Amino acid sequence: MGMPRFTRPKTIDGELSPNLYVANCGPAVGISYDMIKSVFSSFGQVKGVYAADESGVRVIVSYSEVDSAQAALTALNGHPCPDLGGRSLHIRFSVLQPPDEVKDSIPVSLVASEVNIPGLYLLHDFVSAKEEQELLAAVDERPWKNLSKRRVQHYGYEFRYETRNVDTEQKLGQLPSFVSSVVERISTFPGLEASASVVLDQLTVNEYPRGVGLSPHIDTHSAFEGLIFSLSLAGPCIMEFRRYSDGSWDQKSASNSDIKVEILDNGTHLARRAIYLPPRSMLLLSGEARYAWQHYIPHHKIDMVNDNVVRRGSRRVSFTLRKVREGPCQCEYPEYCDSQS
Question: What pTM does this model have?
Fold first, then answer.
């Protein structure tokens, strides 16, 4: 269940409410929600402590009674709090947003087995810190192409964003030598059959500035084969997966994997999962994960990974390696396939 969302107050003497907006404390400065709840419980029953935004230094303290909130505000606002590291708290009343503005959060998995999407694999520390720096230096020596919010480089074939496909007659050449060791190591990636021969001929390098993400999408079926590898460098992020289904969702599968399933206004079922991608990790999308689930990176500067605040770095660079498809896709997911629609 997602946490409640509250409006940010404008003045201290705003609308009375059992909810307080408290600035200058939170996980980002080493103060846990349990510590905050303990202090504010001195004034009455606290129903919960929530993140007010993505900063990690502002929270909402929700009381059962308005009088409790008013007593806490009077006693604590503007004064150093010894039990919260001596920090001076800045407190205002806050109110719940209307229900249609609430967006539920979802749990963030740290390993692929927790996500439980067939064909999804994540290998931590796929490259060393030294290799990471060498790969970053290699791409920084080469020209970048500027998009609206990020920069890209293409090797093997250029990916055309206007068509979400490649022109197979416009080959740019072989993959660059700086990525050779990565490609060689991929052949031993968990999840691949021992006899599988991995052939990759297209590389897209993306540089994401802090706060920039990626819109939800499935890589075009007719453009690429069934294995998509993505190496994360320089900074972390959360990747969310979404699957839409017009029919009834497989509730047995959903309950077993703790997949969050929503029913949209048009009756479509939406399943959502999320995973944390640390620097130097390699993600593999294959099978169902590649063909049926959208992947998406939220446009955040700070991610909440369960109860921990994770600040994104000044940049995140991804190496996405794929094999360009030479014929129509004949996958088992025609409802998501541009070759079969």
Answer: 0.68
